[in-house]
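Q: What does the assembled structure look like for these inputs?
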Amino acid sequence: MSDIMTAKDLNLWYDQTQALKNVNITIPEKSITAFIGPSGCGKSTFLKTLNRMNDLIPTVKITGEVCYNGQNIYDSSVDVNELRREIGMVFQKPNPFPMSIYDNIAYGPRTHGIKSKVKLDEIVEQSLRDAAIWDEVKDRLKKNALGMSGGQQQRLCIARALAVKPKILLMDEPTSALDPISTSRIEELAIELKKNYTIVIVTHNMQQAVRISDNTAFFLLGELIEYGETEKLFSQPIDKRTEDYITGRFG
Amino acid sequence: MLNRRRKAYIGIMKAAMYISTGLTAALVIFLVAYVFIKGIPNITWELLSTKPSYISGRIGILPDVVNTLYIVLATLVFVIPLGVGAAIYLTEYAKNKKLVGVIEYAAETLSGIPSIIYGLVGMLFFCQFLGFKTSLLAGSLTLVIMNLPTVMRTTQESLKTVPQSYRDGAFGLGAGKWRVIRTVVLPGCVDGVITGCILSIGRILGESAALLFTAGFAHALNGVLEGLTSPGASLTVALYVYAKEEGEFGVAFAIAAILMILTLLINFSATLVSRYFAKKREL
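A:
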């Protein structure tokens, strides 16, 4: 498996507060990488540096490099919109737009210039099928997306992200607002999706990391403490702090 | 002992509350009823559909109705794009939050200035300096300046009600800033923007002091094109003229009743519009 993303000596500040310290990591293609760690450890912040969602916060300052397919995404020549098309994002709280299910899915493709009705219909169906929600919504595509349950909304958001055919899917605690049944559906979906996509997921839930991820990175106070195969990291952690965290001694 | 004192205290406070509520309601009802009783019998088709003639002594308010319509439309044509545009820039684009704060504060202060001051400035600037003379155009432009802060502030507040998560979702799909604003942010708050605009129509309708200086008192019916550059009295100004200078209180009350009905209709349509969009968004 080749590496699709690499961070080199990445530092990030919110105003004066340093939120990420010298993060170095490589993320392999078509796998699930989980970021774990206590609240405020920088795992979500780091996730957002991977598709430059941090650009939206004016006080953020970043040094170091994040490379996607060998290209530094913070380079001034990079088209941020195109970058975010290739590196999609699913947020903590389901955030469908207040429009119909169909329009939600079609939003991304339309943004990138697809106008043909036939083509859009095809993308909408395929994306909803890929997100394993087609059967539930195929009869109500014109209904408002806000009328769906939380779990359905989150799968809709995954479908919406898939509709622009990204290479990587960043998931920021995608199940923390959901019930156990919806959670397990999203987890199954993630495992299904890694055949075609690279998935990076931030999670508060260590069992979740164990269940679905191939690699796990443990963050603490803005530092990447330990990174490796999930099974190994949870069974034989190298760092004392990792061991303390995964055995529930703090966090 | 204490219990009785407390009971008496509660009783007195309750009575005071009822009295003040009753007084407020009674005042409003009295005002509306008085104006309607005095005004509605004087609203005739002839009054609404003719222009006044000093020769026959006929009084008609058609020119004033037309002038009011002109002023409302001309003001809106300028104030909506300017106000909404400024609000979008300040809320979505401007980076210097301190400067935005200062501008917002200034806008709020501006909207509290007595309208006669706008009239004075409008007269000096539009009528004399820019040479528009006393005209509906000068009046409208004065009202543009007067309503700009309110339209801008209400639009800003509506923009702020759109959840950040919608914006994040759209940005995360690779949408550019303008596309996010056009397709997600504005549709998400269009009811607030429209309501703000409709309420500013109400303020334009009701404005008189600023127009006394800038739009004048003429009662002539003008052609469609020269209408804007001619002087003319709006309904409110006509009300003042008929009551204060010609002693025609019947006509004045008729105009007052018409203005009240219009205000009522405007507020009603503002409610309808915001309900319509809120409903559309939900399901």
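The CA atoms of residues 115 and 278 of chain B lie 33 Å apart.
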